[in-house]
Amino acid sequence: MRTRTLYRVSAILLATATISVTACKKKEAPAPPAEVNLRDRVSAQIQVIKPVEGLNPDRVALGERLYHDPNLSLDGTISCASCHDITKGGDDGMQFSPGVGGLLGGVNSPTTLNSHLNFVQFWDGRADSLEAQAAGPIENPVEMANTFPNVIAYLESEDSYVEGFKKAFGDAEINQNTITTAIADYERTLTTLNSPFDRWLEGDDDALNPQELAGLQAFMDVGCSSCHQGPGVGGTMYQRMGNVKDYFGSLERSLDETDYGRYNVTQKEEDKFRFKVPMLRNVAETAPYMHDGYTDDLGEIVRIMALHQLGQNLEQQQIDDIVAFLGTLTGDMPTVDIAALNLPKPRAVAPADAKDDEKDGEEATQEPEAAE
């Protein structure tokens, strides 16, 4: 009887010990962390693009006319839209844009689409607002080559512009500030909504196909989003080109001052080769790429940036996938009806035409307000 009782007690103690050990083991082994949802991970760094609210429609309409009017240039041939065609991705698709007299600029023209999302304007960030940026090309000798006194005289001579400025600004005079404010407010409407990426980010699982999703995953894993952030997928910071691996030393061409980037503004050695990180919205539509228009090949740019900025040699499949994802950043493009703008006729004779007229023994004429 005693032996049977001891046996039962021993069995109970053994079972209790087993339960205790098992419980301890379960407590000591924490559950693995749940995998972060890709959409949640992306939205922590990149946001859906939104339209700018509260703009004055009269100022926007005036700005649209000014943006597309070549008479803001010295010879009546170059408008803002010449280098920043909103029907072509907001640029002109050229390595370097021609200005008055065919002179070429030194850097690739960036897109004006979604440009209000940039924290500064121009590759080197020399303009801190769209208004400041709008003023630059008008007086740049290799772009529109004009002066604001000339532009103001032209606008004051056109009844449609006098009326337009009055509607947009009341009794305020036509001056550099009102001109650039109107252009900048028009540019703020050039927001490309409804991209497949935005639809996916808002919950549409069918907006991206498997390769595009794989490209987005690679974009995040490789580290592209460390610089390309915000609703513009870039445009929020400066970065040194060649952050990990020297870039400019790998080029076959000689360097010039346009390669120095932010240094040209600050004259600080630490700013040499630093540029504003470009936005990737509509990037599939804005070739050629880089400040020097190095290549039209978006895949080559992905390879270059991964190598020189992140120190990673990507496999071709990764590059192809990322390029596929970048294509989903293209939204609805703005349109323009040039005829409906009822722009005045060109008010000056282009230099090349003037020379032809002189050869024919005819006197070349220029309107006084457009002459330099």
Could you characterize the architecture of this molecule?
- The protein is mostly helical and 372 residues long.
- It has 2 domains: 40-50 and 193-327, Orthogonal Bundle (Cytochrome Bc1 Complex, Chain D, domain 2), CATH 1.10.760.10; 57-190 and 342-370, Cytochrome Bc1 Complex, Chain D, domain 2.
- 41% of the residues lie in helices and 2% in strands.
- It is built from 15 helices and 2 strands.
- Strands 1-2 form a two-stranded antiparallel sheet.
- Helix 3 runs antiparallel to helix 7.
- The longest helix is centred in the first third of the chain and has 27 residues, at 2-28.
- The protein is globular, with a radius of gyration of 29 Å.
- The model is unreliable at 1-27 and 350-372 (pLDDT under 50).
Write the layout of secondary structure elements.
Blueprint (H helix, E strand, L loop, with lengths): L1 H27 L9 H6 L13 H12 L11 H4 L46 H10 L8 H9 L2 H11 L6 H12 L8 H6 L8 H13 L15 E3 L22 H4 L7 E3 L21 H13 L5 H12 L10 H4 L9 H9 L13
Helix pairs in contact: 3-7, 3-8, 5-8, 10-13, 12-13
